UniProtKB/TrEMBL annotation:
<dbReference type="GO" id="GO:0008360">
    <property type="term" value="P:regulation of cell shape"/>
</dbReference>
<keyword id="KW-0133">Cell shape</keyword>
<keyword id="KW-0808">Transferase</keyword>
<feature type="domain" description="L,D-TPase catalytic">
    <location>
        <begin position="240"/>
        <end position="414"/>
    </location>
</feature>
<keyword id="KW-0573">Peptidoglycan synthesis</keyword>
<feature type="active site" description="Proton donor/acceptor">
    <location>
        <position position="374"/>
    </location>
</feature>
<dbReference type="Pfam" id="PF03734">
    <property type="entry name" value="YkuD"/>
</dbReference>
<dbReference type="InterPro" id="IPR005490">
    <property type="entry name" value="LD_TPept_cat_dom"/>
</dbReference>
<comment type="pathway">
    <text>Cell wall biogenesis; peptidoglycan biosynthesis.</text>
</comment>
<feature type="active site" description="Nucleophile">
    <location>
        <position position="393"/>
    </location>
</feature>
<dbReference type="Pfam" id="PF20142">
    <property type="entry name" value="Scaffold"/>
</dbReference>
<dbReference type="GO" id="GO:0009252">
    <property type="term" value="P:peptidoglycan biosynthetic process"/>
</dbReference>
<protein>
    <submittedName>
        <fullName>Murein L,D-transpeptidase YcbB/YkuD</fullName>
    </submittedName>
</protein>
<dbReference type="InterPro" id="IPR052905">
    <property type="entry name" value="LD-transpeptidase_YkuD-like"/>
</dbReference>
<dbReference type="InterPro" id="IPR038063">
    <property type="entry name" value="Transpep_catalytic_dom"/>
</dbReference>
<comment type="similarity">
    <text>Belongs to the YkuD family.</text>
</comment>
<dbReference type="GO" id="GO:0004180">
    <property type="term" value="F:carboxypeptidase activity"/>
</dbReference>
Amino acid sequence: MLAVAAAAAPTLAAAPRTAKAKAVSGKAVKPKTAKAGVKKSVPAKAARSAADIARDRAVAAAIRAAAGGWMARVYAQRNYAPLWASGGRIGPAAETLIGYLGNADLDNLKRSSYDVGKLRERIDAARGGDPARVAAAELALSATFVDYVRDQRKPRDVGMKWADPALKPKRPKPEAVLRAATFPKSFPTYVKDMGWMSPRYVELRQVSAQARTIGITPAALTRLRRNLDRARLLPGPWTRHVEVDASSGRLWFYEAGAAKGTMRVVVGTRETQTPMLAGTLQWAILNPYWNVPDYLVRKNIATKVLAGRTLASLHMEALSDWTAGARPIPASAIDWPAVAAGKRELRLRELPGPANSMGKVKFLFPNDEGIYLHDTPNRALLKKDDRHFSNGCIRLEDAPRLARWLMGKPLNPGKKPEQAVPLTAPTPVYLTYLTATGGGAGGLSFRDDVYGRDG
């Protein structure tokens, strides 16, 4: 989902009426300590700044005269200040864009879709500094940039499930693309970092470029493109969100154009896979119970009870049903052989405490898969290189740190069980699966395809 700026973009403000501003405008300033009749010369740097300001204003006036439709609306919001030009000259972001267009095949796009030759002619014509020609190059660059970004972000069907339908991506509208680009403080950096795409996508694109310089097999290319299409669905870092990669067993969270944290996670096994799923985190449950899945009740808990363990020793209790008003029932009233044989269903839950499988907190987002993120007391699994051990949910290496970011305050669960705390800002979470990575022969390697999704 492309981030769209919520605040007005910066404008070219008039210089304040101060002595310093008068110096910038080229007017002589009489220092308070200077003798009458003695003028202080304007510093060369200030004179250049004044000239740059004048050229930018001339370009802005030319953009105002030439822009139309949705593009005029975007530029009007920033007082027609140019994005691609500074001091009346087209800046380095233009060459960065042309470089992207020249190797658009890395995005599985056609280079012929973008008239790079004509765009280059506009840029060359603007080198003389004529405001009208600079404005023409500016608008041509913005139009081509919008086309490229929209093509990059056009979603592919990769098997992602959308628990929150609002997150299901569509090809972004042109106005939204350009407006989002005006939000970051540095537009050249935004273009250089490809800030409209997930850092995962940018990394894989770079890996693809390195691999192709040496040579890549058709099978590896097909597999790499599948990974790129999965990463294509992830938001850029300007969208506040959480990202979980079930291949590497790692989580990131992003806000305001940067990663605010990363950590290891334990994810599902080959048999109990963590799905590719996108939803919106809405609640934190402090000191949670753990409702034991039916198959674990049958295969694990019932077997232990029949072997002599008690529910109390397992820190568990049985409940009469799955409703909110369920009542505890004594273990002696349960037909454990029937439970072990799968002839009777039984609701069991693990009580809050140091040994609880959910730890101190779990984070919920509505979904039909029963997936959530949670703390864990089992720290040993997080130290392993391969972290595919869970029943599908995501166990967090540093739940308090994620809680602090999601909730805006330190985690303080107290002792009360099952406390539901709404998140101040509901936050999208994307569970993906990216096996391609750097390193290896030709700069490309693949992690084991544990879930068998690479084909």
